[in-house]
Design a protein that fits this description.
The protein is α+β, with helices and mostly antiparallel strands and about 260 residues long. The N and C termini lie far apart (about 40 Å). The protein has a 9-stranded mixed β-sheet with strand order 2-5-4-3-1-6-9-8-7, sandwiched between helices. Helix 7 links the parallel strand 7 and strand 8. It has one domain: 3-Layer(aba) Sandwich (L-fuculose-1-phosphate Aldolase), CATH 3.40.225. It contains 9 helices and 9 strands.
Length: about 260
């Protein structure tokens, strides 16, 4: 069933982009998409071994279908073999999912993904995609700044389109152990305001109405981070766009 899903091709394209950029080394990075309801997508679970427990409350997601990367899957493999790297799952109740098709178990970051999908259902239904990856320059930036305000003031003056694609700018989340409930909780809280957040010394978590939109936001922020660090490496502390230039750009595009 997974190779036949239209959304699978988007997962393959995004996975190929992440692998080519070096943003998902080894089994790093994961993706999930809450699917639009369709009567032919759900199928009976093949047995008790296809039921998976989750360490997070999924009450708000009961009945929903998701396409999710499997634990240990590599983006470079997903690009060519989606059936071996993706899971099609349905939330059964507060703590259980059934694996309808594909590989398993789910990514270890599922607690974060589930919390964000629950948030999006509550507050902004357009957001259906969650992407986590490891962009080099954004991770480096988390070693430079510990102030979200200072980081954004520098980062979002580097390139005129950054504020257009990411008007809420970038959230900064203090370090937490990967896959932990603490990381899931802090990500959910930060993405109440932002659609892209930087996990300190780890990577980014991005949301979008599609997986391509989530990737767009990562690409824009990563380019700004690369520009900032390039100029810093040349011995400059860049001023970037002035307040007037930022205002004029946002006004011209009605952002």
């Amino acid at each position: 069933m997974i190779p036949q899903l239209q959304e699978t091709r988007t997962f393959q394209g995004v996975a190929a982009a992440l692998a080519a950029r070096g943003w998902a080394e080894a089994s790093g990075g994961n993706m999930s998409l809450r699917l639009e309801p369709a009567p032919d997508r759900a199928a009976p679970a093949s047995g008790p071994e296809r039921i998976q427990e989750a360490a997070v409350d999924m009450t708000d997601l009961i009945g929903d279908l998701f396409l999710v990367t499997a634990s240990g899957s590599r983006m470079r493999h997903l690009a060519s073999d989606p059936a071996g790297c993706l899971c099609l799952v349905q939330v059964l109740d507060r703590r259980r999912l059934r694996l309808i098709d594909g590989a398993g178990p789910l990514t270890s970051e599922w607690p974060t993904h589930a919390g964000l999908h629950s948030l999006f259902k509550e507050s902004r239904s357009r957001e259906r995609a969650v992407l986590h990856c490891h962009p080099l320059n954004l991770i480096a930036l988390s070693h430079v700044f510990d102030s979200e305000k200072e980081m954004n003031d520098r980062l979002f003056r580097m390139h005129h389109e950054t504020r257009l694609f990411i008007p809420e700018m970038l959230g900064l989340i203090p370090y937490s152990v990967t896959g932990s409930i603490d990381l899931a909780k802090s990500s959910r809280e930060k993405l109440k305001k932002h659609r892209l957040a930087l996990w300190d010394k780890h990577g980014v978590i991005a949301a979008g109405s599609t997986m391509d939109e989530a990737l767009d936001r990562v690409e824009m922020a990563e380019k700004a981070a690369a520009l900032y660090l390039l100029l810093r490496g040349a011995g400059l502390e860049p001023d970037g766009l002035s307040d007037e230039q930022v205002k004029a750009t946002l006004s011209a595009t009605k952002k």
